[in-house]
Structures are given as C-alpha cells and as structure tokens.
Specification:
The protein is α+β, with helices and mostly antiparallel strands. The protein has helices spanning 14-48, 51-69, 74-95, 109-139, 151-194, 204-220, 235-242, 244-261, 285-301, 328-344, and strands at residues 225-232, 267-272, 275-280, 314-321, 350-352. The protein has two domains: 3-190, no CATH class; 204-352, 2-Layer Sandwich (Alpha-Beta Plaits). It is built from ten helices and five strands. Helix 1 (14-48) runs parallel beside helix 3, helix 4 runs antiparallel to helix 5 and helix 8 runs antiparallel to helix 9 (285-301). The longest helix is centred in the middle third of the chain and has 44 residues, at 151-194. It is elongated. Residues 1-15 have low confidence and may be disordered. Bound molecules: guanosine-5'-triphosphate. Guanosine-5'-triphosphate binds at residues 198, 231-236, 239, 244, 247-248, 251, 273-274, 343, 347. Guanosine-5'-triphosphate binds next to strand 1, helix 7 and helix 8.
Length: 357
C-alpha cells in the first residue's frame, strides 16, 4: 500500500484556516452588498414617501452592520445574514414592496442560501423561507391595494423560484464535490511534501518546521527536549552484501522500531540516507538515556531478515536541549558531533552531551 495514503489529516490545519478566512471574506462581501442595497432602496423609498419600507430597510441595514461585527464567528454571522435577508424579502412580499413588485425579490434567496448554508442545511433553510414567503403572500400581498402580480404571474414567479432553487442546489452539490476532491488533493500533496516515501516517517523539511516551533516554545518555558541523531552502522556493507532492496527493508524495519519506542508527542524523522533523528519532547537526562538504551536493545534483538544472519546496529549522538538561547543548527551540529564520537568509540553505542557534566 502506498504509505502516503496514511497521511494524518489532523496534522495539516493550514487548509482549514484558509477556508475559514475565505468564508469570513464572503460574509463581509455579502454584508456590504446588503448594506449598499438597503441604503439605495431606503433612499428611493424615502424619496417616494414609502416610510414603512424605509423603516424596514433601516432595521435590515443595522443587522447587516451587526454581521460585520460578528464576522469572525462565521456560523453565527452567516445565519444572521441569511435570516436578515429572509426577513427583508418576506417583508417585501407582505407589504407588496415598491409598486407591488415585492414578491419578485424572492428569487435572490436560493443562490444566497446555498452559498451560505451548503446543500443540506440550504434545503432546510430555503424550505422555511418558502413557507414564510407563501404565508406572507396570502396574508399580506394579496390584500394590498398596489399589487401588480396577477395569480398567473405570481405562479410563474413561484415556478421560477423553484427552478432557481434546483439550479442553485445542483451547483452547490457539484461545487462541494469538486472542493472536497480538491482539499483531498491538497492534503495528499502536503503529505507528499512532509513524509519520506520509503519509511513513511516525517522528512527533514517537516521536522525542521516542528523544531522551529519547539525551539520557540523552549524560549517561553522551562521544558527541555532531546535530539537523538541515529546512524546505521556499516550500512554500506549491508547494501553491498545483501543488496539495495534488503538495505531498504532494514531502513523500513528500523523506522517501525523507532516509532514503537517513542511516545505520540515525539517525532521520528528520516534525516537522510541511513540517518534518523528522534526529537524527544519533555525530556530529561534520565528519559534520554532510557530511550537510547531501549533503542539499542530493540535494534540488537530484532531479527531483520528471517533467513539470513544480518546483524544491524546503530550509533546515537544525543543532545539534550535545555538552554533557552540554543539554536537548531547548533544543537543538531552538537548531536552530530556526539554521533561521530559514538562511531569512533566502536559503534553500537550512544554518546550524550551531558555525560561529563
Ligand atoms: N538501501 C539504501 N541504501 C541507502 C539509502 N540511502 C543511503 N544509502 C546507503 O547508505 C550507505 C552509507 O554508507 P556510509 O556513509 O559509508 O556509512 P556506513 O557504511 O554506514 O558506515 P558508518 O556510518 O561508518 O558505520 C551508502 O552506501 C548509501 O548508498 C537508501 O535509501 N536505501
């Protein structure tokens, strides 16, 4: 199975942030359009002396302004926005609107509804609106002196409304389908950019990003962490003796050993080639030593390739990062230095920065 299919969706929240930002922008745009529309309509109604409609336009305009205030709570803001529009449209139907043309404005409702509510909630909301519109039509508009829509024309407005609703719902359905596919592809590509394809571990790029966050947190707290730079001993000779494919299998099995040895909060990364980096969060001297000993024991006792006698060992350089002003580059350089010392000491061992402290 392609390991990239296992990517964690929760690790990548950038997509969600982006969508929320976009929704906020849409809400602001809709609210501003609403404010401009009611301002124009209100001015026209005032000019023509229809003060009842001026009053309703003022209320709707105030609520649109309120939407701008709550725009960051996009669920609340889009609900207020939509039901404010419904209120305005139903008022137009009930009162007959300007020159008895009020009911025509109901055609605005379907596209705005599906745009703001999505398909399922949109169906519920537009049904509620339709019930409200029909009630307003019979209890208000039909009795108005200035009504100009004949029952036949009103029926056509209703049919047109149903058609626009169906078209808007179909558009919303396909928009949702394509955007879901697109966001899956974005997540897949983010996973591609963050994972090592052979071992399915985090790659150096992703780990460096996480390290930047950890080093920042380190500056703000007293928590310390450890970097364990691990190198497979004599890996070239494993490749030479058993072949590159077996070498790859060894790297995959080592990855799984390392992942089983750490906690969820720790990071196991393929640093490059036959090198791995483990970031042990909330670490102490004791926990760093415990983990490296556990790793050596797990690697040494693992039966790598069933039929062949293949002894695999690793050397580890450990850097416990406690100082607030430590830099990533310097800490990794120190871990590398200790790894070099572990190799020089005969391999299959670990060297720590705090050993002689
Ligand atoms: N199979 C396989 N081999 C790799 C991969 N990446 C790097 N290598 C090999 O890893 C080997 C590393 O060799 P060296 O740097 O000489 O290190 P070593 O043999 O482990 O020796 P020491 O580090 O001193 O113990 C090279 O032969 C690389 O070709 C990989 O993804 N798969």
């Amino acid at each position: 199975m392609n390991p990239l299919l296992n990517y964690s969706q929760s690790d990548n929240t950038q997509g969600a942030d982006f969508v929320e930002h976009e929704i906020e922008q849409i809400i602001v745009t809709f609210a501003v359009i609403g404010i401009v529309a009611v301002a124009l309509m209100g001015t026209l109604c005032a000019y023509l002396g229809n003060y009842q409609l001026v009053f309703f336009d003022l209320i709707a305009g105030t609520i649109f302004l309120l939407v701008l205030k709550f725009r960051s709570n996009y669920r609340l803001a889009s609900t207020i926005l939509l039901f404010n529009l419904y209120g305005l449209l139903i008022t137009l139907i009930y009162s007959g609107g300007f020159g008895g043309t009020g009911p025509i404005w109901m055609l605005i409702a379907p596209p705005v509804t599906f745009f703001l509510s999505g398909l399922t909630l949109g169906v519920v909301n537009i049904s509620l609106f339709l019930v409200g519109a029909i009630v307003a039509y019979f209890f208000g508009y039909v009795g108005q002196a200035n009504q100009i829509l004949s029952p036949e024309l009103a029926l056509r407005v209703l049919l047109c409304f149903i058609l626009v609703t169906l078209l808007s719902a179909t558009y919303e359905y396909f928009k949702h389908k394509y955007s879901s596919r697109l966001s899956q592809l974005v997540k897949y590509n983010e996973a591609l950019a963050n994972l090592d394809p052979l071992t399915n571990l985090s790659n150096r790029r992703f780990t460096l990003k996480r390290l930047e966050e950890l080093f920042q947190q380190e500056k703000d707290s007293t928590a310390s962490f450890a970097l364990l730079l691990i190198d497979v001993d004599n890996f070239k000779s494993i490749n030479d003796r058993f072949g590159h494919d077996v070498g790859d299998q060894v790297l995959i099995q080592l990855s799984s050993i390392f992942q089983k040895a750490v906690r969820k909060s720790d990071i196991v990364c393929r640093w490059g080639g036959e090198e791995f980096l483990i970031v042990l969060t909330d670490a102490s001297k004791y926990s760093a030593v415990q983990l490296t000993e556990r790793l050596h024991h797990a690697v040494n006792s693992h039966n790598f390739i069933n039929e062949q006698q293949l002894a695999v060992t690793v050397s580890v350089g450990v850097q416990l990062v406690e100082e607030a002003d430590a830099s990533i580059t310097e800490s990794i350089k120190q871990a590398d230095l200790h790894l070099y010392k572990a190799k020089a000491m005969g391999k299959n061992t670990s060297k720590y920065n705090f050993e002689n402290a």
